[in-house]
Write a structure and sequence with these properties.
The protein is an alpha/beta fold and 307 residues long. It has a 5-stranded mixed β-sheet with strand order 1-7-6-4-5, sandwiched between helices. A 4-stranded mixed β-sheet has the order 8-13-12-11. The protein folds into 2 domains: 2-164, Peroxisomal Thiolase, Chain A, domain 1; 170-304, Thiolase/Chalcone synthase (Peroxisomal Thiolase, Chain A, domain 1, 3-Layer(aba) Sandwich), CATH 3.40.47. The protein has 10 helices and 13 strands. The model has no long low-confidence stretch (mean pLDDT 97). The chain has helices spanning 19-25, 30-37, 48-63, 87-95, 110-123, 146-149, 197-219, 236-246, 257-260, 267-277, and strands spanning 2-11, 16-18, 41-43, 72-76, 101-104, 128-136, 154-164, 170-177, 185-187, 193-195, 226-231, 286-293, 297-304. The chain binds oxa(dethia)-CoA. Residues 28, 32, 36-37, 108, 146-147, 150, 185, 197-198, 200-201, 204, 234-235, 238, 262, 293 line the site of oxa(dethia)-CoA (UT7).
């Protein structure tokens, strides 16, 4: 059973907020944010629906498909525009899709969970699926709280997955969830994101490494075989610590958090698109996609690009 990833698209708001701009209203500095997180600026604006729609349209165009070709829309989002309805049907309507559409919330591992869900949907008869990760995190940030305000941002990324009986790009998955850690990173109804940053950091490195090792083993390759690592973009130090433990040089990791901050479900497709724009995605190469977040949830996958 095969899944081909045939198109990608992204969308970010035009509005750039630099660390210096945040320092005007918060007790923080460009130096602290850059040194502790790697983030230099982020994009703020839009909504899960508007950003997700644009990314979805671009992915469809990239795959050379039209709206009537898509059998299912899976949207990964932690920040749906409303509790009900889900945001996916609104994106489907805005795009002119008439297929089933649903949201998946696995926080920053959301795009990976959505890919896994789409893989299952392809196994049960669907032929073409649009997977979108879209976030409007800035809406749920207390802009007087320097702990979260310097980290979270808005954006969207999308991929088209197509059934192919002759081969697959998705070689393996390792997913997990540990609800006993649920209180480490939360956003209550009507509230704002709050996090025990240090503990989330520690656990993030641990689960990225263990799930990556499992996914590599299941794919039958080693870390040395990887051309690229496309990690969730939460903190440069997390990416450095995890790649070091996996024995992967940082030059093989894709980093876009300096420009986009932490965009949760959107961060992996944003990083992929950046790698492709820079000629780093080549047919036949292996890549590790890995994410982690509130829940806690985590997910790693090994991909072999066919195009
Ligand atoms: O996306 C999924 C999940 N998210 C993550 O994976 C994020 C994981 N956690 C992290 O990335 C890091 O823990 C943070 C970036 C959130 C924080 O970095 P840290 O190195 O763990 O800093 P800290 O919380 O230990 O704070 C160090 C100091 C503290 O001051 P004292 O107690 O040493 O005087 C903080 O009050 O830095 C202070 N601080 C700040 N200073 C300037 C905390 N936030 C800021 C800030 N600007 N924005």
């Amino acid at each position: 059973m095969g899944v081909r990833i045939t198109g990608w698209g992204t969308a970010v708001p035009d509005r750039i907020v630099t660390n210096d701009e945040l320092s005007l209203t918060l007790d923080t500095s460009d130096q602290w944010i850059t040194e502790r997180t790697g983030i230099r600026e982020r994009r703020i604006g839009g909504s899960a629906m508007t950003l997700g729609t644009l990314a979805g349209e671009r992915a469809l165009a990239d795959a050379g498909l039209s709206t009537s070709d898509i059998d299912f829309l899976v949207l990964a989002t932690t920040t749906p525009d409303r509790i009900a309805p889900a945001t996916a049907p609104m994106i489907a309507n805005a795009m002119g899709l008439t297929c089933p559409a649903m949201d998946v919330n696995a926080a920053c591992a959301g795009f990976m969970y959505a890919l896994r869900t789409a893989q299952g949907l392809l196994e049960t008869g669907n032929k073409k699926i649009l997977v979108i990760g879209a976030e409007h995190l800035s809406r749920w940030v207390d802009w007087t709280d320097r702990n979260m305000a310097v980290l979270l941002a808005d954006g969207a990324g999308a991929a088209v997955l197509e059934y192919d009986p002759d081969g697959t790009d998705l070689l393996s998955f390792s997913l997990g969830a540990d609800g006993s850690a649920a209180d480490l990173l939360t956003c209550e109804h009507g509230g704002f994101f709050e996090m025990d940053g240090k503990e989330v950091f520690r656990r993030a490195v641990r689960v990225v490494v263990s799930s990556a090792e499992e996914a590599l083993k299941e794919a039958g390759i080693t870390a040395d075989d990887l051309a690229l690592v496309i990690p969730h973009q939460a903190n440069l130090r997390i990416i450095q610590a995890a790649t070091q433990r996996l024995g992967i040089e940082m030059s093989r990791a894709v980093v876009v958090l300096d420009r986009y901050g932490n965009t949760s479900s959107a961060s992996i497709p944003l990083a992929f698109a950046d790698a492709r724009d820079n000629g780093r995605v080549k047919a036949g190469d292996y890549a590790l996609l890995t994410g982690f977040g509130a829940g806690m949830t985590w997910a790693s996958a090994v991909v072999k690009w066919s195009r």
